[in-house]
Every structure is written in structure tokens, then in C-alpha cells.
Design a protein that fits this description.
Structural class of chain B: alpha/beta
Number of domains of chain A: 2
CATH class of the domain at 330-523 in chain B: Alpha Beta
CATH superfamily of the domain at 330-523 in chain B: Dimethylsulfoxide Reductase, domain 2
Helix content of chain A: 10-25%
CATH class of the largest domain in chain A: Alpha Beta
Largest interface: A-B, 46 and 56 residues
Oligomer: heterodimer
CATH architecture of the largest domain in chain A: 2-Layer Sandwich
Number of strands of chain A: 17
Shape of chain B: globular
Distance between the termini of chain A: 61 Å
Chain lengths: 279, 993
């Protein structure tokens, strides 16, 4: 059976919020019986966008993580719902039945991704429906995906096996797999959001003039083992990305023609820009 | 003659039959017939033939011949004229001819002649206007219409008279295929859809906003016949009145003020970009009215452009695009030839060029695909930098051209520039070289020298200069890439923009891979297909105004010319002083020639009255102009006797009016337009899009409340001044759309009927061989100009037509001939570009000690000017737009952790941002995206909600422009420097009620 999945490329998201606006356009003030009653005008974020800033100064970077309902294969909300208030369709889309879910406020906390919201006025939990009413009407994608101008959001309806192939080919990963919910939303370049970097700008002083040290050889060492090598660019910059946050001590060694090798210890908690390092 | 007379009589008989038929078919038409009981006579002037129509209680009778006591008459000089006017409804040249030469003479009460002409026009379009035969029926009671926003074209789904949803337009199989660019072994094609900005998707929340003005209102303590209580503007409340009451007050005030004070006493000005379309816009529907009334003219400062207009223009003679560069062919050239793109004060991901929605984003990803390096120079790690990565250099604001001079220094001393180009294509280099190298003033402009000004390490600037000097590099400035940018809106903005030209001249502007752009502008679209932009004036008839009707529409859509003979000019940035009757001097904003900007004008103009009546249209200046407590205070002033505000929403400024006229959005009325097309001063601006798309802007729903279209409001006022037929030419806004359609190239490729149904047309991209040449390539190769635009004017060439640029030497000038002529010793604007410290910045020691943070306020990302902000729109929920604290959506100020910590401010705190000009309460966002010492917020907040006395108390709405200076960048200009603004920030701990 083919199932709907969403693929989100972190490197292509720039917080334009077209997805979020399209979601509100579709669901606020519009009720789709059998799918979902209307979303309140304010307060719900059926597609939430998280921001992450890494580094500092000239080597700051910023990434965004759009998080809709993950339409999990192992949904914790469904397990906790009473009266079968949350159902999974054969195409993978998970829907909340507003009548059965009446008053079940605890479902808001049942989602480990925080994707369920409480509608105070109607006394019901609500969330992203993958625009199932449109999918049933032969739309090719939910509103958020249709509105995404950068190609960061993609929707596919494929068999499990085909999706596994896509995952392998594109290097996709789920967000917080440790939650064990087996989500159907996968991310590309997720490391940009979840991992950390060590970066610096290597410089030299010759005859009293400072210049960027291009072409310096930088080695990253962890527990006595070389785990990365980079050559500095024309600004003397290097950036070892994809490291685990809070992963402890690293050694950086810098070699450049005409200078003594320089070694430094770094303790990594979150991404760190070490600033200028003079040879 | 006899035969013609017979045709005339047959025509009149036919008219009667069709009127009757239409009345039988459409009850709504019968209702219109019922509006007047009267007798309308149509006849030839010599009384040799005629027919009269008698309307009584919605019924219609008619008889051949002449009636002795008609209520109104339509008199034709000859049968020919009648045939021209009525028989060939699409022969507008004929109609105008008949009217202009008095061959067609309507007489009698305006209310009857306009009504009768409206009936005739409605009769012809009854199936559309009364039966709703337009758009696509999707079944289940859903219709899909099309419309246009400043953030792209949209499909509008409507059910039961309400907007159901708004989506981007995805093309169908019958729409034209897009272009493909082959570059370095790869093919690049844009997707077959039109993107939108996020605010285009928030339309529903704005159309149905609780801040909509639903009916005409009068300030409660304003009495046109008695006490006006001007001092209470902004304080006292409003009462609902009828349209007739409101329009009568406005028309009476217009007449009174003209009689009492003479020319100049009426003033009209407008915000820009709130809606899009050729008919219902300020330079169309409003201009036709204000020209007909005669108003003092608001001269817009070259707002977003500033430095380009007052500075750069003198080096390369580009007066069109307000000093910016022609954009053609640069997307293809950049992808094929360029090795690096420098984004300098350039954030297309936030501002979308001008109206380019998100179309440019996909193209910038191609830079990544091709491995083309990017560098970003901006005090804020802007969203383009965030998305693309690359090196980020963060100079202090107001450091102007210090970094540029240092780059030039490296190029000069290390031989990293194009000597041949400089020798053959430019003049004055030696003089500038002497200055840069320090021979003139003893200060070599080294990278080390600039470090003290910009705060950017010398080594980084040297590295950038060396790479730039040795790689084929594009320079992208501002959102569009070829103009504007926040650095041009600083006290040093003129010098910054001038330096950008000089740097490009050193590198050989126009060579393959060496040009200006950031992939936002200049896609290979068909520039030969004619469809006007809004600045070409629509139905404004404006011959002399900024609409530049002369360029295209005059020939393409013949219409009655409108002339505003009032010659009093009001510089927009000095409106508050003008409203108070103070004397003002300013210099002209010029689009047609550089030299016009040297012309000084004064207010009040000799023999003209100061302003007594202010007709304000559109968005709130309190959010967009500078030092705007001035605007607030100036309203509370007895010299300003009457203020009418025509707006869609109750924005910050509307509540300073005496009468408020509620306009509707363009989803509630008819219009027609092209996505991203400004025309006029910014020709071919649609080149920022991936597709040329003309859109029928359907009337999707009925106007909300009692609101009316701008066209109808202006028309109603015109009627009260007996200008109704002159204003409308007997047509509705729908008729004008059709008339404009007829004046474009669309009828050659799509029928009106099909266009009306489908709602859009995609112009096929030209074949590769038909693509436009690359900007400035002609110049670099020493050929005649071959890019597709008319300006500069033929007389602005010093040699042969089309040879060289429009400077006095015909070359790009490092030393400007125009400035030498104007004032060779002006310390504020020297003949070569020099470093001039900011008049509000780190060098203004005393002020800097008091207000040690430099505030920059770029154009807002999530709202086009004030238009989508506030209003309880969806946009407020965007986390980076406003922050919800204690039930109130606060405007955001962004500050570095270093500056936040020093003030015990944490993320999400309320803070007071203030200086001597005002105070704004904002939500703090603590971020490393902004360099220490600089704070970032956006301009153009819609709300103005002072917590105390308006004009004298902190604003919690978020009008950062209460804080920005109103001083001109240079004295002899009319310019602002919003990004040279010193402030202090402290935690806000008081309770706000």
C-alpha cells in the first residue's frame, strides 16, 4: 500500500513561512467535515518552524526546521487516544476525529513532537491533516508543500520499499528517531540543525601586516584519532561540521608553510567559532 | 448624409431594444433602471434626427423624434460622431476625438448623464457583471478566480460569496513552456508555476480583517459648519455616516477650500504598493480625480534608492530606475561566466526584488549547483546569506564607502583591475586614484584604515579585494541586485552607491561575468510583448505626472488627458512642516534626466496657498517616513482645516482624519495587471520573475461592509463636482479593464472571453536567438546601446544617439561632470567619491555616548511596507515578524548577546528603544545575526498605538520610524537616512494598559 510521506530539506528552508501561511489559509475559518474542523485564527502551528543559530561572528550560520505532524507509523497519540479518537488511514495519514476526541486535552502532550494543539473554543485537539481533504480530491500535495517556493518541502506517495530507496539515495533521516515513533516525515541535511561545528579563521602576521592564511592544513583530532582534514580558504577559514553537540574534547592542529605547527584544545558543547588564530 | 442619419436612427432603436431585453433578462438591471424617473433625449445637433427614452418606475419607453422637455440630452454634432461613440464601442480613439472636439455633448444634470451612460455600459457587460459569467467553475459551488498581489499572482477559490482559499498559480498543459539556460554543462529551467510571497497567502485574513473600515466615518467632534477641533485628531473617536453624507462633505470642502484659498490649498498624497493593478491604483483612479480637482503635488523622495539617485547616477547617467543599472540578460551571463557574486547590502530573499515574490530563490540555488562563490556584506546576517552561506562581512552601518575605497586601494596598488577598460571607457580615474592612494589628503585608504570605520578586519577586506580583483565577479546591490539597498539609505548613502559604480568600472562593467546582479533580475523573458506596468498610469490620463503615460499608454489606450495645473510641490519627507504652513526647500526627484535633480523648489510656491485640505490615500506614513512623531503632531494643527483619508484598513494614520472613506481590496473589485510590472520609472521590472504573467483581476467577492472600490469613490466625488463623465468616460472599472486589455498585445494571443474565464496568460519565453543582450555589453564593446528600453532621452546623448552613457562625456565618470557643473566644491557631495563620516554615527561623539547603538531598519520581510502587518492578519503569527507577549503582538528588535547582556535583556523581553526623537516598545530577539553595537528591526509597521498622548509618548505598535532622523543625506537633495540612527535600549518594566 502506498503511503504519503513528506521530505524536508533543511538546507532549502529559509523561514519564508509560505508553508505556515498556506496552512492557515486552508484551515482557519474553513471546516472540512470528516477531516478537521476549522483551526483557530491564532495560536496553532500545524507546521511549526524552529530556528537554530550556530557559531558566532563571521562564521555564524542559521538553519530552520519545519515540523508538521510526523504521521508516525508508531504514533504515540493514537495509543493514548480514547474511543479510537485518532485513526490512521491506509495511506498513512493520521486524523483526529473531533467528536471522539472531545475533551481529550491530554492528547496535546501525547505527541513527543508537540504537533497537537488544543482548540479551547471547540474543546478538541487538532493537528496537521496532511490536507487529506485535498488529497482525496486528487491534489498532488498538501497546501504547505504546494506553497513552498524553494523546494524545501516535498510530498510523495510511495510504497515502503520505494521510500527506503529514496532515503538511501538522498541521505534522509528522521528527526529525533530515539522517540521510537517511526515517523513518515524525513529530513535532508538534518545535520545542519542537529549537529555542531568547530570553526576558526587562520591568520598570519608578516612585516607587521596581518593577512588571512589561505591553504593552511587543519587537522581535527578526537581521542588521538584523526577524524577530519581541511585546507583553509582565502579568508583563512575552516569549519568542521557534523560533530555531535556536547561531544567533549577535540584537538585542532594547523600546519602552514613557513610557520610552526599550532595545536589547540577545544571543548565542544555547541557550535564554536574560535575567532582568529594567528600562526 | 441621409444614409448616415438612417444608421443613427437604427442605432438608437437598437439601443432601446437592447435596454429592454437586458431589463427583461436581469432583475439587477431593472433595479438600476428604477433609480431615476426621467426622460433622456439623444439627438443630432441640427435636430434632424433623434429618439428619446423615458424611464419610469423601472420601466422604459421610447419614441423616435424630439421631446420638448427632456431631463438630459446627449447631443451629437453629426451621425458620424454618434456612430463613433456608440456603434463601435471599441473605437476609443473615435470616442475621445468626438468628446475632445465637442462633437459629443452631454447636457443636463450630471447625476442623470452619468447614470444613463452607466446603463449603456452595463447593458453590454450584463452577462459578466450581473450573471457572474467569469472564472472557472470547479463544481460543488466553488469558483476559481485569479488575482494579483504585490507578492505574486494567485488563484482565489470562492464558495458562497466567501474566499475559501488562495493559492499560487500552477500552470496547465496549455500554458507556455519556460526558458532553459545552458551553463557549464548543466541545464537550468524554472518550474512551471508562479511563486508567491508569504503575505499573498495571508490575504484571507486581511480581506476579512477586523481592522477593515466598513463604512464611512466622521470624527465625532468635527463639524465642517462649526467647530473642527483639529487639535483632537488622533484622540477623538468616530461616528458612522452614510456615503452620501461623507462624499458631500468631501466635495463641499474641495469647493470651499478652492474658493477660499486658491490653487495649492488642496494636497493629495498616497502610500505605495498596497494593491496592484492598472486601474484602481493611485497613479490611475486617484490621479484622474486629483488632476481634475487640482492639487499640490507630493514629490516622493527616491525612497529605497536614495544613494543611487543622489550619488551613483552622476557616474553613469542612469536616471531611469532612479539611478540603478539596466538589468538585461544578467541571469544567463552570471550562470555562464561569473566566478563569484558579492551581495552588498543585498537581501533578495527578504524583499523579493520589487514584486518578484520568491521566483528568484530557485535561481540562486543554481549558484550552489555551479559552485559559484558568494560573499555577503551586511551588518545583519540577512536571509539571503543565511540561505546561501558563504563569507559574511559585517561592517558597521554608516561606514559608507570606507570598505569600497580600501578594496579600490588594493586593486590600484596590486594591479588587480582592468586598465584597458578604465582607459577607454571611463574618465577621471587619475583624480580618484590620487585620493584613494592618499596623495590628495595624506590618508591612504588602506584596508587597515577602513578597519576603524567598518569594524571589519583589514585582512578580510584584503582577502576579498584580492579574490574580487582576480575573479569574474558580479556585484549584487539591494534586493533587485542592480539598485537600492539599505547602505544607500544612510547618512553616507550617496558615497556608498557612488563607490559601487566606481568599483564596477574598475573591473570592466559589462564584460562577460562582470556585471551587477544577484540573480534576482533579468531572466530571459520576452520584453517585446507589450503590457503596461502600473506606473504607466492606467486610466489616469496623466500627461505630466510621474505616471509617464507618454511612454506607452498614450498611444495604446487613447483616453481623455488629465492636467493638474497646480504647480505647488510638496516634498514628501517634509509633509508635516508643509501641513503646518512652514517654509520648505527641497530638490527634485527626477526619472527622465539626471540634471533635473539639481532643481530646487520651495514651499509654499509663489502665489499659492499653503495646504488647507489633505486628501490622504493608502498606507500609514507613520510607519514608513522618518522622525514620524512629526507627522502625528502636524495633524493636530488648526491650519490644516480638513483631512480625508481613503483607506482599506484602519492603520495608524487613518485615525487622524476628519472623514474616513472605506476602500475595498482588489479582491472585491475589478482590475487587470501583470505580475511584477512597474513600468514607467522601472521599465521591464517583471524581469525578476521566471514567467511573464498577465492577470485578470477578477472581482472575487462583493466589497466587505459598505466599502467601495477606489475607482467608485473617486468617481462619486467627481460626479459631485460635475466631473463624472469626464472622470469615467461613461465606463465602469470593469470596462476600463477591457479597454486596457485592448490596448495591449494580449488580444493578439487570447480572446477577452477566454482571458476573463481562465484569468491569466503566460507569455512564451523567446527562443535563445531572440533573447535580449546582456546589460552594458554594448558599452563595454563600444557599440551602440542595444538593450530594449527607450531611455535615456535622445537629447541626453552627447554624441550620436545610442552611443555611450548619458553623462557629459558619454563615459562612466570617476569624476562627475554633472557635479562639477552644479557645485565643484560641495563638501557633502564631492566630484569624486570620498569617505565622509556619518552625521549620526560613531563619530558624533556626544550623541553616540548617549545613544550607543546603531539601529538599522531594512524593508520588512513579511509585509510589503505597512500593508500586511497588523490588522489581525496571519502574518503577525510569524515568529520573526511579531512576538506575542501578554496578549499583544509586539514588533521585534534584534540585538547581539553582548549588547543584550550589558542591559540585562533576555530573548523575549519587552524593551524600550529610544532616542531624543521618540520611543518604541519592542520585543527583544537576542541573536548573533547582528553584529555587536548594531540593532536590527524592520521599517513599515502598520500600527501606531501610543500609550499616552499621540506624538509625545512611547508607541507599542512598533513604528521604528518614530526614531529615525528626518535630515537629508546631503542638504541639496530630498532624501532620508533611516539607517543612520542612534538609539539606546532598556528593559521595559512598566505595565501597558
Amino acid at each position: 500500500m502506498k503511503k504519503w510521506r513528506m521530505i524536508i530539506d533543511v538546507e532549502r528552508c529559509e523561514d519564508c513561512n509560505c508553508c505556515y501561511m498556506a496552512c492557515k489559509d486552508e484551515h482557519c475559518d474553513n471546516s472540512f467535515p470528516g477531516y478537521s474542523p476549522g483551526q483557530p485564527k491564532h495560536g496553532h502551528r500545524w507546521i511549526e518552524i524552529f530556528r537554530k543559530e550556530r557559531g558566532k561572528g563571521s562564521l555564524t550560520d542559521v538553519f530552520y526546521l519545519p515540523v508538521p505532524c510526523m504521521h508516525c507509523n508508531n504514533p504515540q497519540c493514537m495509543t493514548k487516544a480514547k474511543n479510537g479518537a485518532i485513526k490512521r488511514r491506509s495511506d498513512g495519514i493520521i486524523l483526529i476525529d473531533p467528536e471522539k476526541a472531545l475533551g481529550q486535552k491530554e492528547l496535546v502532550d501525547a505527541c513527543p513532537y508537540g504537533a497537537i494543539y488544543w482548540n479551547d473554543e471547540m474543546n478538541i485537539p487538532q493537528k496537521c491533516t496532511f490536507c487529506a481533504h485535498l488529497i482525496n480530491d486528487k491534489w498532488k500535495a498538501p497546501r504547505c508543500v504546494q506553497a513552498c517556493p524553494t523546494g524545501a518541502l516535498r510530498a510523495v506517495c510511495v510504497e515502503d520499499e520505494e521510500f527506503r530507496e529514496i532515503i538511501d539515495k538522498e541521505g534522509l533521516a528522521p528527526y529525533k528517531p530515539e522517540l521510537g515513533t517511526d515517523p513518515n516525515v524525513f529530513y535532508k541535511n538534518l545535520d545542519r540543525f542537529t549537529k555542531a561545528f568547530i570553526a576558526a579563521s587562520v591568520a598570519k602576521r608578516v612585516d607587521g601586516i596581518s593577512d588571512c592564511a589561505e591553504g593552511a592544513h587543519v587537522t581535527l583530532i578526537k581521542d588521538g584519532k584523526k577524524i577530519g582534514e581541511l585546507i583553509t580558504d582565502n579568508y583563512g577559514d575552516f569549519k568542521f561540521d557534523g560533530l555531535e553537540e556536547n561531544s567533549g574534547a577535540y584537538t585542532i592542529s594547523i600546519e602552514a608553510d613557513g610557520f610552526r605547527e599550532k595545536t589547540m584544545e577545544v571543548h565542544l558543547t555547541e557550535s564554536i567559532y574560535m575567532g582568529d588564530i594567528y600562526l | 448624409m441621409h444614409a448616415k442619419r438612417i444608421i443613427f436612427e437604427v442605432l438608437l432603436f437598437g439601443m432601446y431594444q437592447v435596454l429592454k431585453h437586458t431589463a427583461r433578462k436581469y432583475p439587477a438591471f431593472r433595479e438600476r433602471l428604477n433609480e431615476h424617473n426621467c426622460l433622456v433625449q439623444l439627438r443630432l445637433k441640427d435636430k434632424s434626427a433623434g429618439r428619446y427614452l423615458q424611464f419610469e418606475n423601472g420601466r422604459i419607453k421610447s419614441k423616435r423624434g424630439l421631446h420638448s422637455h427632456p431631463d438630459a440630452e446627449l447631443i451629437f454634432d453629426s451621425a458620424d460622431s454618434a456612430v463613433q461613440t456608440f456603434a463601435s464601442p471599441r473605437d476609443f480613439q473615435g470616442r475621445i476625438d468626438a468628446a475632445k472636439n465637442f462633437r459629443f455633448l452631454p447636457t443636463g444634470p450630471e447625476v442623470l448623464t452619468t447614470w444613463f451612460m452607466e446603463l449603456l455600459s452595463l447593458m453590454q457587460s450584463a452577462n459578466v457583471l450581473l450573471k457572474g459569467d467569469y472564472g472557472i467553475d470547479l463544481g460543488n459551488g466553488v469558483k476559481r478566480y485569479t488575482n494579483l498581489t504585490t507578492g505574486g499572482p494567485v488563484f482565489v477559490y470562492v464558495k458562497g460569496g466567501r474566499i475559501l482559499r488562495v493559492t499560487p498559480i500552477e500552470f496547465d498543459e496549455s500554458d507556455a513552456q519556460p526558458w532553459t539556460i545552458e551553463a557549464r554543462g548543466k541545464s537550468f529551467t524554472p518550474p512551471r508555476k508562479a511563486t508567491v510571497s508569504q503575505y499573498a497567502l495571508a490575504i484571507k485574513s486581511m480581506v476579512y480583517s477586523p481592522d477593515r473600515l466598513l463604512y464611512p466615518m466622521k470624527r465625532i467632534d468635527f463639524d465642517p459648519e462649526g467647530e473642527r477641533n483639529c487639535q483632537n485628531r488622533g484622540i477623538s473617536g468616530y461616528e458612522r455616516i452614510t456615503w452620501d453624507e461623507a462624499l458631500d462633505i468631501v466635495a463641499n470642502e474641495i469647493r470651499r477650500v478652492k474658493k477660499q484659498y486658491g490653487p495649492g490649498a488642496i494636497f493629495s498624497s498616497h502610500g505605495s504598493h498596497h494593491m496592484l493593478g492598472n486601474i484602481g491604483y493611485w497613479c490611475s483612479a486617484l490621479a484622474r480625480l486629483t488632476n481634475s480637482i487640482g492639487t499640490s503635488i507630493c514629490i516622493n523622495n527616491p525612497d529605497s534608492w536614495e544613494g543611487w539617485h543622489w550619488g551613483a547616477e552622476h557616474h553613469w547617467g542612469n536616471s531611469m530606475r532612479v539611478g540603478g543599472l539596466e538589468p538585461y540578460g544578467t541571469v544567463e551571463d552570471c550562470l555562464k561566466e561569473c566566478e563569484m557574486v558579492v551581495f552588498w547590502s543585498s537581501d533578495p530573499e527578504s524583499t523579493g526584488g520589487v514584486y518578484h515574490a520568491m521566483d528568484g530563490t530557485i535561481r540562486r540555488f543554481w549558484l550552489k549547483d555551479l559552485g559559484i562563490k558568494v560573499v555577503h556584506i551586511d551588518p545583519y546576517l540577512n536571509h539571503t546569506a543565511g540561505l546561501l552561506g558563504g563569507k559574511w562581512l559585517a561592517p558597521r552601518p554608516g561606514a559608507g564607502n570606507a570598505m569600497a575605497l580600501a578594496i579600490a586601494y588594493v586593486w590600484m596598488t596590486e594591479g588587480l583591475y582592468d586598465r584597458d577598460y578604465v582607459a577607454e571607457r571611463t574618465t577621471g580615474f587619475e583624480k580618484w586614484r590620487e585620493y584613494v592612494l592618499g596623495k590628495e589628503d595624506g590618508i591612504p585608504k588602506t584596508p587597515e584604515w577602513q578597519e576603524a570605520e567598518t569594524g571589519v578586519a583589514a585582512k578580510d577586506v584584503r582577502a576579498l579585494a584580492r579574490e574580487w580583483g582576480s575573479k569574474r565577479t558580479y556585484l549584487g546591490v539591494g534586493g533587485p541586485g542592480n539598485m537600492v539597498g539599505g547602505a544607500g539609505r544612510e547618512a553616507t548613502g550617496t558615497e556608498w552607491a557612488r563607490s559601487m559604480v566606481c568599483l564596477m568600472a574598475m573591473q570592466g562593467l559589462g564584460k562577460p561575468g562582470v556585471n551587477m546582479g544577484n540573480l534576482q533580475f533579468a531572466t530571459p523573458l520576452d520584453t517585446k510583448f507589450f503590457f503596461p506596468g502600473y506606473a504607466e498610469g492606467g486610466m489616469g490620463g496623466d500627461v505630466f505626472g510621474m505616471s509617464e503615460l507618454i511612454l506607452n499608454m498614450y498611444q495604446r489606450m487613447p483616453q481623455m488627458p488629465t492636467l493638474n495645473t497646480v504647480k505647488q510641490l510638496v516634498p514628501r519627507l517634509r509633509i508635516p512642516e508643509a501641513l503646518k504652513g512652514e517654509s520648505i526647500e527641497a530638490y527634485m526627484t527626477a526619472h527622465l534626466t539626471t540634471n533635473e535633480q539639481f532643481l530646487k523648489f520651495g514651499y509654499p510656491a509663489p502665489g499659492h496657498s499653503p495646504i488647507k485640505l489633505y486628501y490622504k490615500y493608502g498606507g500609514s506614513y507613520i510607519g514608513t517616513m522618518n522622525d514620524t512623531n512629526r507627522f502625528v503632531k502636524s495633524y493636530r494643527n488648526d491650519k490644516l482645516e480638513f483631512v480625508v483619508n481613503q483607506s482599506i484598513w484602519n492603520e495608524g494614520e487613518a485615525r487622524f482624519a476628519d472623514i474616513i472613506l472605506p476602500a475595498c481590496t482588489n479582491f472585491e473589485r475589478w482590475d487587470i495587471g501583470e505580475s511584477g510590472n512597474c513600468g514607467g520609472f522601472n521599465q521591464n521590472s517583471y524581469l525578476g520573475l521566471n514567467h511573464r504573467l498577465m492577470v485578470m483581476q477578477h472581482k472575487c467577492i462583493e466589497p466587505i461592509g459598505e466599502s467601495k472600490s477606489d475607482y467608485d469613490i473617486c468617481y462619486e466625488i467627481a460626479k459631485r463636482l460635475d466631473l463624472g463623465l469626464y472622470y469615467s468616460e461613461g465606463m465602469s472599472d470593469y470596462d476600463w479593464c477591457r479597454r486596457l486589455f485592448d490596448g495591449t498585445d494580449l488580444p493578439k494571443v487570447i480572446s477577452w472571453r477566454k482571458f476573463l474565464r481562465k484569468g491569466y496568460y503566460v507569455v512564451p519565453a523567446p527562443s535563445e536567438a531572440r533573447r535580449d543582450p546582456v546589460a552594458m555589453r554594448w558599452y563595454q564593446e563600444g557599440r551602440k546601446k542595444d538593450t530594449p528600453e527607450a531611455p535615456p532621452a535622445p537629447c541626453d546623448y552627447v554624441g550620436n544617439w545610442l552611443e555611450g552613457v548619458a553623462t557629459q562625456t558619454g563615459k562612466i565618470e570617476f569624476e562627475c561632470s554633472s557635479l562639477k557643473r552644479f557645485d565643484p566644491n560641495d563638501p557633502e557631495r564631492p566630484t569624486i567619491t570620498k569617505f565622509i563620516p556619518s552625521w549620526e554615527g560613531i563619530h558624533t561623539t556626544e550623541l553616540f555616548e548617549k545613544f550607543p547603538l546603531q539601529l538599522i531598519t531594512p524593508h520588512a520581510r513579511y509585509s510589503y511596507h505597512t500593508h500586511q502587518d497588523g490588522k489581525d492578519s496571519f502574518i503577525n503569527d510569524i515568529k520573526d515578524h511579531r512576538t506575542l507577549i501578554g496578549g499583544y503582538y509586539y514588533w521585534i528588535i534584534r540585538l547581539n548577546p553582548v549588547d543584550a547582556d550589558a542591559r540585562y535583556v533576555t530573548d523575549g523581553d519587552l524593551v524600550k528603544v529610544y532616542n531624543d526623537r521618540g520611543a518604541v516598545i519592542c520585543a527583544a530577539q537576542v541573536t548573533r545575526r547582528v553584529r555587536p553595537g548594531v540593532v536590527h528591526s524592520y521599517t513599515s509597521c502598520a500600527k501606531y498605538e501610543p500609550i499616552g498622548d499621540p506624538g509625545y509618548s512611547p508607541d507599542r505598535g512598533g513604528c521604528m520610524n518614530l526614531l529615525t532622523p528626518s535630515r537629508n543625506i546631503i542638504k541639496r537633495s530630498h532624501s532620508h537616512a533611516a539607517n543612520s540612527c542612534l538609539v539606546q535600549i532598556e528593559k521595559w518594566q512598566e505595565e501597558v494598559k
